[in-house]
Design a protein that fits this description.
The chain is α/β, with parallel strands linked by helices and 274 residues long. The chain has eleven helices and six strands. A hairpin with a 3-residue loop joins strand 2 and strand 3. The chain binds guanosine-5'-triphosphate and magnesium ion (MG). Guanosine-5'-triphosphate binds next to helix 3 and helix 7.
Length: 274
């Protein structure tokens, strides 16, 4: 049932690349242990540390105004235990591992009047590979709409932004099916974002709370219903899709170049040993 904890082929590929790097490092480490020249041995060990840091990761910044459920969502996706409450605000940046190749960045809510919170968010947004922009079931307001368009226009993230409408358990259905309500919300978002094409940014509609409740449900039927209502799988699918299109494979070129550069340095040092 919990599809989001499964590893995709993409992750397995990255696991293999990372495992290979670790394997090379441990074999080379064994080789240099016997080097009688202490300074050279230490220099090579430093290079190994650089190699170890060359893991292939994607950075996903989770942003949005306070109380939209950023920390709750990260807890739901990763099983972590970030502080969550309507009264307790996130005040710093926290990185949480999600699957093998992704780091989710939790951060303070934006536009609350605290300049330092907005600065943390802006920095994370600029350096991220993907921005998860969270809004509540009340959709955009006067502050969050310009904030979203700024990420696209000022930071050029039009192809790296996913709009997530959280707290969908609060949507008043008034006899409608949820899909109907989602179609209406999508239209409203489309109009607000014009001329930006909404499809480029998803959007996905979820309830992080329903998903967390599904994990603690008293029986399987209730768990299944809450899981379906949470629609968390639509978000997991959207993230998988993003990683497949623009993810770690695309990003491999940079770390591999770094790794090759470091290996070349190590090779030169080893040649001077012989
Ligand atoms: N009904 C409902 N409540 C939710 C949902 N997700 C989060 N909440 C509640 O919204 C409140 C705020 O959640 P947080 O995860 O702390 O929100 P945040 O965006 O991290 O807030 P800041 O750290 O202040 O920016 C908490 O009381 C959560 O339980 C949801 O899907 N549905
Ligand atoms: Mg928070």
């Amino acid at each position: 049932m919990v599809a989001n904890r499964k590893e995709s082929n993409q992750d397995l590929f990255v696991v293999k690349v990372n495992a290979k790097i670790q394997d090379i490092i441990s074999r080379l480490s064994d080789c240099i242990e016997g080097d009688p020249v202490v300074t050279r041995r230490e220099q090579i060990k430093t290079l190994f540390k650089q190699l170890q840091a060359s893991r292939v990761r994607l950075l996903i910044a989770v942003t949005g105004e306070t109380n939209v459920g950023k920390s709750t969502l990260i807890n739901a996706l990763t099983g972590s235990n970030l502080g969550v409450d309507a009264d307790v605000k996130t005040t710093k940046r926290t990185e949480v591992d999600y699957k093998e190749s992704i780091i989710l960045v939790d951060m303070p809510g934006t536009l609350s009047g605290k300049l330092e919170h907005d600065e943390i968010a802006t920095k994370a947004i600029i350096e991220s590979d993907l921005v998860l922009f969270l809004i509540s079931n009340e959709l955009f307001n006067k502050s969050s709409l310009p904030s979203f368009t700024q990420i696209i226009e000022k930071y050029g993230k039009q192809e790296q932004i996913l709009l997530v409408v959280n707290q969908c358990d609060r949507v008043s259905l008034r006899g409608r099916a949820i899909d109907e309500a989602i179609a209406v919300m999508t239209e409203s978002l489309r109009e607000k974002l014009l001329p930006f094409p909404i499809e480029t940014a998803g959007p996905v509609f979820i309830s992080a709370r329903d998903y967390l409740d599904s994990l603690n449900a008293s029986n399987n039927d209730e768990a299944q219903q809450l899981y379906e209502d949470s629609r968390i799988d639509t978000l997991v699918t959207a993230l998988d899709q993003f990683c497949k299109n623009k993810g770690p494979r695309g990003k491999l070129a940079r770390p591999i170049q770094q790794i090759l550069g470091t290996i070349e340095e190590i090779r030169k040092k080893l040649v001077t040993c012989s």
